[in-house]
């Protein structure tokens, strides 16, 4: 149900968990990275596409993850007077609702700071909105779809992620909508490419001096010459993709230890209930009370292998001591859990990058939302262990690329879906 009260909206902003389900199996495929779908989105394919050849409004893309559902919605702002008069009331209601609320239901949220204005999509100009809600709240979303009349405007919604399969029958039964499913890794790559192309000067960045709070600096990264690069997509689990050129990408690795693991372990160990709460605890904790460091084992640095004394030698290594367990705090446990998961992801990414001989590594996914601790850890680890050869690159739109790529597919195949 909608939340209108501003205080309730602000209170609920901190209730959204993190993550999206990743592909559990290996995947190989090919794309055109500066792709046909992107050109069609931009109307830059050498000819102007008429309004009539594009799908009917509204235009949505949906990525239903294991923990979080991401939704992008395109709002046209170039409507003529005649178009505004003929526009159905349901679309007007949807637009009014999206623009008048920051929270949706008890736990949903529109990331207004990420919205992209004056964007060219399907030969229309408008604003792209970014919305997220816990996948566990899908019944409430379906009820909202009913109440706002979304189901009366279309028979098909483009969706990706594991939930596109899991909730397919629910969409059909509750709101008489068919989910047109697209591969989540294809959507991820297409979405990254499109957003980076249209947010070129602001989308990609890295951290300079990530371990020094006083001198740490967020720096824009020039991604205009991308190939080759890795994408480390951190949701509930982790998938790692390698893109070698305009028509060549594949899934090269992954791990089941991701954002869902961090949240689950934090809930078990600290009693917290949300991702935001777990991150807040971690920010106040000291992992040295939980982890064994190199200096705990060697009494200092391990010079022979260039290991500094403050590097983690054994995650949770102190917890076999009853005395240590008695003194450890919830904050310490959350901090150690976050560092354990982050170090594992960074280690796998570094080894894959070395194996594939790739120096640009993009980290995306909702695990990184409100999580500067992990971003700075990854930045330092990639730089330190590669001798300065690898750089951890982050993107402003974090976990929304799959949903954006899904909307790209709607623009490319909308007419075909309608006729089928």
From TrEMBL:
A GO BP entry: coenzyme A biosynthetic process
Keyword Plastid found: no
Main location: cytoplasm
Pathway per the UniProt entry: Cofactor biosynthesis; coenzyme A biosynthesis; CoA from (R)-pantothenate: step 1/5
Cell compartment(s), UniProt: Cytoplasm
Keywords: ATP-binding, Coenzyme A biosynthesis, Cytoplasm, Kinase, Nucleotide-binding, Transferase
GO CC term, one of those recorded: cytosol
Catalytic activity annotation: (R)-pantothenate + ATP = (R)-4'-phosphopantothenate + ADP + H(+)
Matching SUPFAM superfamilies: Actin-like ATPase domain (SSF53067)
Enzyme class: transferase
Family: Belongs to the type II pantothenate kinase family.
NCBIfam families the UniProt entry points to: panK_eukar
Protein's UniProt name: pantothenate kinase
Organism, scientific name: Cherax quadricarinatus (Australian red claw crayfish)
Classification of source organism: Eukaryota, Metazoa, Ecdysozoa, Arthropoda, Crustacea
């Amino acid at each position: 149900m909608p939340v209108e009260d501003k205080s309730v909206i602000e209170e609920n902003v901190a209730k959204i968990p993190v993550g999206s389900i990743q592909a559990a199996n290996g995947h190989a495929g090919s794309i055109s990275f500066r792709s046909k779908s992107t050109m069609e989105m931009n109307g830059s394919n050498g000819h102007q596409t008429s309004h009539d050849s594009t799908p009917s409004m509204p235009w949505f893309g949906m990525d239903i993850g294991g923990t979080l559902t991401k939704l992008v919605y395109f709002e046209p702002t170039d409507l003529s007077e005649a178009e505004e008069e003929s526009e159905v009331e349901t679309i007007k209601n949807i637009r009014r609702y999206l623009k008048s609320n920051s929270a949706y239901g008890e736990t949903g949220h529109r990331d207004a700071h990420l919205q992209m204005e004056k964007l060219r999509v399907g030969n229309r100009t408008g604003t792209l909105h970014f919305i997220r809600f816990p996948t566990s709240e899908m019944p409430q979303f379906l009820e909202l779809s009913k109440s706002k009349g979304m189901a009366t405007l279309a028979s098909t919604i483009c969706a990706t992620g594991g939930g596109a399969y899991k909730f397919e029958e629910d969409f059909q039964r509750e709101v008489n909508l068919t989910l047109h499913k697209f591969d989540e890794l294809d959507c991820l790559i297409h979405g990254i490419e499109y957003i980076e192309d249209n947010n070129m000067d602001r989308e990609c960045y890295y951290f300079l001096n990530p371990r020094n709070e006083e001198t740490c600096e967020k720096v824009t990264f020039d991604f205009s010459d991308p190939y080759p690069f890795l994408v480390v997509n951190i949701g509930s689990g982790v998938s790692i993709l390698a893109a070698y050129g305009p028509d060549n990408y594949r899934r090269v690795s992954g791990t089941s230890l991701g954002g869902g693991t961090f949240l689950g372990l934090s809930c078990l160990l600290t009693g917290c209930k949300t991702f935001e709460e777990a991150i807040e605890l971690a920010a106040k904790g000291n992992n040295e009370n939980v982890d064994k460091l190199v200096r705990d084992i060697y009494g200092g640095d391990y010079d022979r292998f260039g290991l500094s004394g403050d590097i983690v030698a054994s995650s949770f290594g102190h917890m076999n001591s009853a005395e240590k367990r008695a003194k450890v705090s919830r904050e310490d446990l959350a901090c150690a859990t976050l560092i354990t998961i982050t170090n594992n992801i960074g280690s796998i990414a570094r080894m894959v990058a070395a194996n594939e001989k790739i120096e640009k590594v993009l980290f995306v996914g909702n695990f990184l939302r409100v999580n500067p601790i992990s971003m700075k850890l990854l930045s330092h680890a990639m730089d330190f262990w590669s001798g300065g050869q690898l750089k951890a690159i982050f993107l402003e739109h974090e976990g929304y690329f799959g949903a954006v790529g899904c909307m790209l597919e709607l623009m490319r195949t909308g007419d075909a879906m309608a006729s089928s």
